Amino acid sequence: MNAPLPLSDLAARPPLELLIAAPRGFCAGVDRAIEIVERAIAKYDAPVYVRHEIVHNRHVVDELRAKGAVFVEELDAVPAGAPVVFSAHGVPKAVPAAATLRGLEWLDATCPLVSKVHRQAERQIEAGRHILFIGHRGHPEVIGTIGQVPEGSITLIEDVADVAALTFQPGTALAFLTQTTLSVDDTAQIVAALRARFPGIVGPKAEDICYATSNRQAAVKAIAPRCQLVLVIGAPNSSNSVRLVEVAERCGTPARLIQRASEIAPDWLDGIKTLGLTAGASAPEALVREVVDRIAGWRTVSEEEVVVAEEKIVFKLPRQLTA
Fold first, then answer.
1. Contact (Cβ atoms closer than 8 angstroms) between residue 227 and residue 254
2. Active site residues
3. How far apart, in whole angstroms, are the C-alpha atoms of residue 194 and residue 191?
C-alpha cells in the first residue's frame, strides 16, 4: 500500500511543490555535542558513556551507539574511571560534582547558549533577585538551569496563567530568564505579562531563545501560508521541533511531526499541491533527503528552498579534546 510507484508510471505521479525551509536541521550546539562524543570515542576508545540522549534524535543516538557510545540515565551506571559526556541540554551543578567525586573523566557538551543562561542565573541570584524561569516543566534544559542555583530560588513559569497566579509582593527583587528552545511568540506574551505585573523585573540583555530556534520558526512562518501541509522532522521530546509544528498550525496550516520518512503514509498527500518541509535542530540533513526521496516515489516533486537567514556560528570544543 505504501510502496512508491514504479519509475515508469510517471502519469500516475501528480506534481507536488515542495517548499523546504532554511535554516533547518542541525544547529551549532548540536554539531558540537555530536563531535564531542565522536572525538571522545577516538581519544579514549569505546565505550564512552553519555548521560541522557546527547541530543533529542533517535537516528543520531543510534549512529553514535554504533560507534561505541553507551547512553545511560544516571552516573551510577558509569563504571569508575570511565569517560562520560553530559548532553547538550545541560545538567545541574551536582552532576559534574558527583562525576569528579567518583573519579570519572567527564566532558561537558552543554550548548554554550544554554551555559550562558546558567551564568545569567548565577548572576541574578548573586544580585539578590528571585528568578522567574520561562520553560517547560521536566525538560532537561529546565532541570539543568534550575540546578545551577540554590533550591527555591527559581520559580518555573509555563504560560501566562502562571504569571497571574504569582504572589510576590510589590517591590520584590525579581528577574526572568527563558529556556532556549521556546516559541518566540508565546514567550513574548509571557514576558509582556511579567513586565505588566512586575514593572521592576530585570530581564536578560539579549534574548535567551537561541538563534537557531528563532531562525527555524521564522522559516516555517515563511513557508506555512503557502502550503496545505507542513512536515516537521524531529523527536516528540524535542522542544524546538514541537514548537515548529505549533508555529505552522498558528499560520493556519496543518502540520505533522515525524521522526523518519517511513512514518509518512501516501494518503497524507491527498489533495496536497504544496507541501512544506523542515527539521528540528537535532535532526540531520540525511533525514530530510530521506523524506524527499519517499515523497518522490508517489509524486513528481519540484523543490524550492526558502531561506530566511544564514547561519555561520561554530562553537569551540572542550580543551580535553583539542589539546
1. no
2. 141
3. 5
